[in-house]
Amino acid sequence: MKRYNPKELEPRWQKTWDKDGTYKANLKSDKPKYIAMSMFNYPSGTGIHIGHAMNYTISDVKARFKRQSGYESYHPVGWDAFGLPAENYAIKAGVSPSRSMAKIIPDYHKQYKAMAWSNDWSKEISTHEPEYYKWTQWIFSQMYKNKLAYQDARLQWWCEKCQTVLANEQVIDGKCWRHDSADDPLVEKKEVKQWFFKITDYADELLDAIDSLDWTDSVKLAQKNWIGKKTGINITYSIEGITEEREVTCFTTRPDTNFGATFIVISPEHELAEELANGKLAAKTGSDMKKIAEYIKASTVKSEIERQQEGRKKTGVFTGLYAVNQLNNQKLPIYIGDFVLSGFGTGAVVGVPGHDIRDFEFAQAFDLPIERVVVGDDGDELPITRAEQVQEDNGKMINSEFLDGLHIKDATEKMMDHMEAKNMGKRVVNYRMRDWSVSRQRYWGAPIPIIHCPKDGIVLVPDEQLPVVLPQLEDFKPSGDGRSALARAKDWLSVECPKCGGKAERETDTLDTYIDSSWYMYRYFDPQNQDKIFDSEIVKKWEPIDFYNGADHATAHLLYARFIARFFTKLGLVNEPEPFKQFLFNGKVVAQDGAMFSKSKGNGVDPLDIINQGYGADALRTYLMFAAPLELWTKWDPQGVPGTYRFLARIWNLTQEYLSAQEGNTEDKLTQDIHRTIHGMIKKVTKDIEENRYNTAIASIMQAVNELYKFKTKSLARSDVWQEAFEGVIMCVAPFAPHIADELWHQLGYKDSVHIDHWPKYDDKYLASDEITIVVQVNGKVRANITMPSDATEEDIVKTAKVNEKVKEYLNKKEVRKTIYVPRKLVNFVV
RNA sequence: GGGCGAGUGGCGGAACUGGUAUACGCGACGGACUUAAAAUCCGUUGCCUGAAUAAGGCUUGUGGGUUCGAGUCCCACCUCGCCCACCA
Question: How far is C-alpha A271 from the chain's CA centre?
């Protein structure tokens, strides 16, 4: 008998599939289409790790399942090759990033193939190739032409180590996401001229569509929070006793509490603050210009993390000015405080210390009055002196004249109506989301296709001159003045202005790599197109992506991709505004102690090691999909792969036994049992894979195999029903363990691959048994099981249950007050 | 601080719309084969009392509730994980 030897058979099948083009997708096929993919990989040079093995196997199983089920199934492959890690690695190693990519990517090919991911290699893409980034640049041009790209000088997060600006989501705990260890520097704010995409124009669209997405709920919620839509009111206050006439406008979502307002705080970046600091304005009674200027300076230098380290201790400075609350003519002193953010709302807030914790803390720090205007569920009406009395998000109004007695929700509406009628304020909507900063001052990215002309200003590179090819440089370190290394590429830099033909200079910023990854799924459908970004006809046939998964990038990447898809619909390039029909936010594999696998900790698990130890990719894939539900984080168990290896070997051994058995008949009872087992398995596996519950799908195959081992002790013969059983098991296990499946499929006599168009069908008629087991309870406790013919009536069942010895004991001649009967399942006697 | 999710054997985890809790796997123990080991196969394995594969009791983080019946539904609390975080 041949032994199960993955080391021999796996490479052999990989070659065969390659040669036969088994996984090549025909995008013009008449079959129904299906595309499953995981977020593409960033080739870092360290190879794939167990986390990649997890991610890509998830979408591969899905793609294989659909391919077997008769779909034209496409499992694409590509590389997110631009970006900082490759560039930093190149700086360190002294090799250009393009050269190191040329070396790294072929290594990845080997690893992907060893894992048996059913990729269509003929359509491979990489974002760093000019053929690809030509179209990334084209997207920028389209944005610019549609007035969705603009340049603006803004305070940006700046990482000293990266020498580049960072998006908000790239700042983690006050540090750069790439440099977040203890000895790394904190990020700073720096004023930089940046290119932006106006994603905020799409905020409502992006928000409204979220509910209808078939995505992991936590991701949908994260997207909603990221957009952060808030409806409120901008209240404008006039300022008293000032040298020039001024107003201050505050945004609030809680105008109902406005009778409790006792002060106003503006952000250090507020223009009023600036005017006070440079002496343009002052209170008639005098403002401490020096103190104000010092405070502003100190707070801009202060990093985010320093502010956090100070906890909630509020700082600020009085301006000498007062605003007037028109509701009750109360004078509200105006402060400058750094807890107020300039980027949200109007950069000014009205302080209601009785009902907002931050305002309360500020009031305590500056000894400002605290008024109660809401009584919460606790009924506490006492003056507010402690923090835990603050913040009633439910309650009724007091001390608020015409609002008294109203619930806060109704009071909010009434106050907004009142303020709008009296011209005190105007309803507004605010978003947390800002425009997408797309400039990076780094070398390894797609150059922004812009030319700066002394005469014509900003000029777009004409489409026919794209791509603007990234020049080969010896030294790609940032230039140090805030510009990328491209600023030193003098030949490249100097260019003829497309408008006037005069001497001009290229833009030296490159595009954020999130743009590369926000449209790559479309390029998969037409990877070689030289004339267009892609053929819309093919894309419209294949969109949306049916299945997408990943363990990271729940907000930024997915939101940007959705934005680009919506932009593409407006350009008529695609039909579907939502690019990903289904998104699964899968869990990660972590070390046994719960720590993340990482190179620096040296606790990584290399999938290739496990394969080469002799367990094979099939056992590894099966273990990863079996260990836990896909959305859960899993701890790596070194005993796990041997376990699934054993399971596959059991299938192998049993099949060998069958193949060397004599031809013969299988008796009816056994035939029935085998049918029930196999068809039950097929039903469960089909449903479970469909619903992304791979762990229980595998469990039910294991269970069926265990059953077959029992059945074979009765009689194992080369009969139709046994043949059907082995084919069923092999087809069901094929998405998880593709090599052993195709090998055994051929041993069973087939000449084609199990992986195309071979998914078993089940028939419910085999699932029915002629006997049913009924649970009998007395007072809700299980006391007996009875076996009844499957056509037994309720009357029969209850009668039989009642006379059961065990049950009789518990009924103990007492009167049965109530009998509950659950059809074909259970009887419960209440005494 | 806010939001979301999860607590089930020694471990990873099953359990459909409330109906036999602990499927499947790992580990452990026992047996068969073997000179021996590995591999393989067959058993046992939630906890407590019991000699018992007799019988009984208990058990899904804790405490209450609804129900004939609760891992599942409701309320309160505890613990852990993830995400966001001075967003007005």
Answer: 38
Phi/psi of residue A79, each to 5°? -130, 130
The C-alpha atoms of residue A485 and residue A474 are separated, in whole angstroms, by: 10
* Pure H helices in A691-785: 694-714, 720-733, 738-747
Question: How many angstroms is C1' of B79 away from CA of A485?
Answer: 52
**Within a 10 A sphere around the Cβ of A303, how many other Cβ atoms?**
18
* Kind plus residue range of the DSSP H or E element containing A10: helix A6-20
- Closest by CA position to A413, among listed A280, A275, A544, A255: A255
- The gap between A687 CA and B50 C1' (Å) is 45
What is the predicted pLDDT for the residue at A169? 63
User: How many other β-carbons are positioned within 10 Å of the β-carbon of residue A217?
Assistant: 10
Q: Which nucleotide is nearest to A710 (CA to C1')?
A: B42
A599 CA – B2 C1', rounded, Å: 34
Shortest-distance nucleotide from A358 CA to C1'? B86
Q: What is the DSSP letter of A614?
A: I
Per-residue model confidence as pLDDT tens digits over A688-711: 999 999 999 999 999 999 999 999
pLDDT at res. A302? 66
Residue at minimum CA to C1' distance from nucleotide B24:
A699
**Which bases of strand B have any atom within 7 Å of the beta carbon of a protein residue?**
1, 3-5, 11-15, 19-21, 23-27, 39-43, 56, 68-70, 81-88
Using C1' positions and the CA of A356, the closest nucleotide is B88
C1'-nearest nucleotide to the CA of A779 = B68
Nucleotide nearest to A361 (CA to C1'): B86
Question: Given its phi and psi angles, is residue A446 left (phi above 0), alpha (psi -120 to 50 degrees) or beta?
Answer: beta
Distance A312 CA to B32 C1' (A): 71
Q: State, as a whole number of angstroms, the distance between the CA of A807 and the C1' of B72.
A: 27
CA A688 to C1' B22 (Å) is 21
Q: What is the 3-state secondary structure (H, E, C) of A63-97?
A: HHHHHHCCCEEECCCEECCCCHHHHHHHHHHCCCH
Pair type for strands A818-822 and A781-789: unpaired
Q: CA(A589)–C1'(B54) in Å?
A: 47
- CA A668 to C1' B17, whole Å: 36
ipTM over 0.90: yes
Residue nearest to nucleotide B83 (CA to C1'): A222
Cα(A60)–Cα(A648) distance, integer angstroms: 19
- For residue A786 the two structure tokens come to 């009875």
- Its pTM stands at 0.92
Give the residue ranges of chain A where pLDDT is below 70: 1, 167-169, 173-174, 301-312, 593-594, 598-602, 813
Distance CA(A332)–CA(A329), nearest Å, equals 9
**Nearest nt by C1' to A702 Cα:** B24
Residue A206 CA to its chain's centroid (Å): 15
Tell me which residue has tokens 């069942």.
A797
The nucleotide lying nearest A644 (C-alpha to C1') is B25
A470: nearest Cα among A196, A81, A122, A178:
A81
User: Which residues are paired to A78 by β-bridges?
Assistant: A125
Q: Tell whether the torsion through CA atoms of A109, A112, A115 and A119 is positive or negative.
A: negative
pLDDT at A588: 86
At residue A49, the pLDDT reads 87
Can you give the pLDDT at residue A79?
96
Q: How far apart are CA A397 and CA A374, in angstroms?
A: 5
> In the beta sheet, which residues pair with residue A506?
A451
